[in-house]
Amino acid sequence: MTETRRVRRARAPGGRWLSLPLLVTVCTLSGGGTARADSPAVVDSQSIVRSLQPPGGATRGLVVEHRETAAGVHKVILDIRFANNSDRLTGAAHAQLAELGAALSSPELARSRFLIAGYTSASGGAGHNQRLSEARARSVRRYLLERFSIAPERIESAGFGASRPLPQFPPNALEQRRGGVSPLPPAS
Q: Coil, strand or helix: which one is 159?
């Protein structure tokens, strides 16, 4: 399986519906450049904006899986594809990054700061996976800064290797190879 969507309705305390982020997995390309997976699902910019905005307003309709970091901040996991064992963005990544760039440039998020996070599966050595996840997060950051009018101080990048696996998948699963975006506290 190359694409995973967890869709459910979720109510916040008080009974109002929340707009929550979509979980989509990251896939890589084989050495020959042919995709191991179908075309990636692209999360549109408005869904990203809704996922990254601080909770507050009530919404109605379909909501997607709730994801929280330890600090209780929402994040969105995106299907951002790279060449196998590389930090080089593939053509398939550009459509998703265009939506992400539009979202981060939107008026709703214009004053917010974000962390671009990279993750890997557990295959390969821990040191290599750490370096690869950091390089992939930097590639996404660089792409966004070069193509969108986003101030560099608004976007940080970090790699987490295989240290934060998704619990519902085996450590070596393709779904562990992913990218994420989460809000950061305002700069002081």
A: strand
